[in-house]
Specification:
The structure holds two protein chains of two kinds.
Chain A lengths: L16 H27 L4 H5 L11 H10 L6 H32 L5 H10 L9 H10 L6 H9 L3 H12 L2 H9 L4 H12 L1 H16 L3 H6 L8 H7 L10 H21 L1 H12 L1
Helix pairs in contact in A: 1-14, 3-14, 4-7, 4-8, 4-11, 11-15
Chain B lengths: L21 H28 L2 E3 L6 E3 L3 H8 L1 H34 L4 H13 L2 H12 L5 H8 L10 H30 L2 H9 L4 H30 L2 H7 L11 H11 L3 H31 L1
Antiparallel strand pairs in B: 1-2
Helix pairs in contact in B: 1-12, 3-7, 3-9, 4-7, 5-7, 5-10, 7-9, 8-9, 9-12, 11-12
The chains are: A mainly alpha, B mainly alpha.
């Protein structure tokens, strides 16, 4: 962002050597940060013997299709394609579920007066404070009690129970001009009509930004799926990778494991890169 | 995620509100139900269970009051885990914030290309901690790892399976890696928001780059830095479970068993529910303290 009354650039920025040095530093930085991903990609395109006799090559081999086909359709315990579907259902379920219940409850909190409102408000507020990692044992017991182990409901519902999105929408609704609700009321529109025709369309950008963040949050969950999916066909890809390592001294099937790691990264990376502007906006809005 | 909010009663609701109370209760019901069943009930259970110990057969629970807490606080393993967590979260925070700040400062000096570098640097943020663990484990694997092999060529025998210090180093780097992206985004946005004229003025007064950095840029970045400090500590405390579970499983000799990992290993592996619940309650207070700390800071940030 440049400010309108800034002096022309060039006074502070170094030219020549200094500028080149900055580019060199950035390129080295990017290369170092990127190296682990590159190495995983290379490992996913070579054969097992090439990996187990170190050092492994640093440039891709010709086994790309073989390794990815084996990972996707055979896997180690379960085809990776199955795990990808599970992860997708879980990530979208968490994102959509949290957005829907938050849109509605924030609407109730901001646009209505009703008995017990402050109590509900503080109850919801308290859920901001406790990540699922802290209450795993009792939450596990609740899910087991409902018979929801190895189910999508069990994967999704406990992770929806947090108020971050509610507060985000509440903040947003507070910035919506009062005149809009007033006009709707004068015109005799019902509250839900106002919600659907005015509030919801206005929230679209916020919803999209939040979706990106929640999708990644859901996709990257590890501990919770690890606990409640004992059936390999319900494993998500992020937690399933660890299960692909053999117990004991057997050598891991590295090409397939690394192909799976790459497959596990692709959806969130696509979401982040393609929605970069929204994502950064969502991040800065929701966390700052 | 922590949303910024003001909780004053004055801006609790709109001046213009709709009538009726059945509809709003229906609207708020899904969130209240989900919170009650999957949050309050389990959290209450954690507090309740922390006051009991199960008998050896797991058939009944015996009330012990604060016995679990007393036992934990005198348990050398638990104290060690506290210390491990402190070291781990400090290192993760430093190792992710310092490189991020450095890269952001360099990127901020570029007029062209900064956006491209930013796009490239975002990638690791999208990588799950558990996947990051697998990637770093692969690089440092004692048998096939590329980095450990080259270290061996230089005469350094890397073995994080046996060496606690190396294990700690590896989980710290793997945990910090993805956070560099995150911190970079915030530092870069904050740097871009500093009016260039402020920097130019200092440059005209003859302040060199480092002098400008220490006396002008860094103080202006302090709200962002402070915010990131808290967020990264919370991350290191709670979200690094995947890294530790994939790389070290808390070993060797518990040298990488942070508090969250211990809740898991005592509760699910060791089946010591009372102790695990008591540990959850202690963590609950840690999160509470961090949250309050954060809100206080955010209040200040608004006045800044």
């Amino acid at each position: 962002m440049t400010h309108p009354n800034d002096p022309p650039p060039g006074m502070v920025e170094k030219r020549g050597a200094g500028l080149w040095l900055s580019h060199v530093i950035m390129i080295i930085g990017v290369l170092i940060v990127f190296f682990p991903i590159w190495l995983a990609f290379v490992a996913s395109t070579v054969t097992q013997p090439e990996i187990v006799s170190p050092p492994m090559p640093l440039l891709p081999g010709d086994q790309f299709w073989n390794n990815y086909r084996e990972a996707l359709f055979a896997g180690v315990n379960v085809p990776v394609a199955t795990m990808l579907v599970n992860s997708l259902v879980m990530a979208i379920g968490i994102a959509v579920g949290k957005i829907v219940i938050s849109l509605l409850s924030a609407f109730a909190i901001v646009y209505f007066k009703f008995p017990g409102k402050m109590v509900f408000f503080w109850l919801i507020f308290l859920t901001l404070m406790l990540p699922v990692e802290v209450r795993i044992v009792p939450t596990y017991e609740v899910i087991a009690g409902f018979g929801m182990l190895n189910s999508y409901g069990g994967l999704i519902l406990p992770l929806i129970a947090s108020a971050t999105a509610t507060f985000l929408f509440r903040q947003f609704y507070m910035t919506v001009p009062d005149e809009l609700a007033e006009a709707a009321r004068v015109d005799g529109a019902s509250p839900m009509r106002f919600f659907w025709d005015i509030l919801f369309p206005m929230s679209r950008t916020n919803i999209a930004a939040l979706f990106v963040i929640l999708f990644i949050y859901g996709w990257n969950q590890y501990l919770w799926p690890l606990l409640i999916t004992t059936d390999p066909s319900m494993n998500t890809i992020v937690m399933g990778i660890k299960q692909m390592f053999p117990s004991g001294d057997d050598t891991a099937n590295w090409p397939v494991i690394m192909a799976t790691s790459i497959l596990a990264m692709i959806p969130p990376i696509i979401v982040v890169i393609s929605m970069q502007k929204l994502f950064i906006r969502g991040l800065v809005d929701s966390e700052k | 995620m922590v949303a910024r909010m003001s909780l004053g009663a004055a801006d609790m609701e709109k001046r213009v509100t709709f009538k009726g109370w059945i509809l709003p209760l229906c609207l708020i019901a899904p969130q209240v139900l989900v919170s009650a069943i999957f949050f309050f009930y389990p959290a209450g259970q954690a507090i309740w269970q922390s006051l009991f110990i199960p008998d050896p057969f797991g058939l009944s629970m015996q009330y012990v009051g604060l016995g679990n807490f007393e036992y934990l606080l005198s348990d050398p393993y638990y104290r060690t885990s506290f210390l491990t967590t402190a070291i781990f979260s400090t290192l993760v925070t430093l190792c992710s914030m310092i490189p991020a700040l450095f890269l952001a400062v360099v990127a901020d000096r570029l007029i062209k290309g900064a956006g491209v570098y930013r796009t490239m640097l975002i990638w690791p943020y999208a990588v799950a901690p558990a996947i990051a663990g697998v990637l770093w484990l692969f690089m440092f694997n004692t048998r096939v790892g590329v980095v450990s092999w080259y270290l061996g060529q230089f005469g350094y025998d890397w073995n994080h399976v046996l060496n606690g210090g190396e294990a700690m180093g590896l989980v710290v780097v793997a945990s910090a890696w993805g956070r560099i992206s995150y911190n970079f985004l915030f530092f870069f946005a904050a740097l871009q928001a500093i009016p260039k004229s402020v920097i130019e003025a200092a440059a005209i007064d003859g302040a060199r780059f480092w002098k400008r950095f220490w006396t002008i840029v860094l103080p202006l970045l302090s709200p962002t830095t402070f915010f990131l400090l808290v967020v990264n500590i919370v991350y290191a405390f709670f979200e690094t479970f995947g890294v530790i579970h994939t790389i070290t499983s808390g070993g060797p000799q518990q040298s990488t068993t942070i508090l969250v990992y211990k809740v898991f290993s005592d509760g699910f592996v060791g089946q010591d529910l009372g102790s695990s619940a008591a540990q959850s309650v202690i963590l609950l207070f840690v999160v509470g303290a961090l949250t309050i700390f954060q809100f206080k800071f955010i209040e200040r940030r608004v006045h800044y």
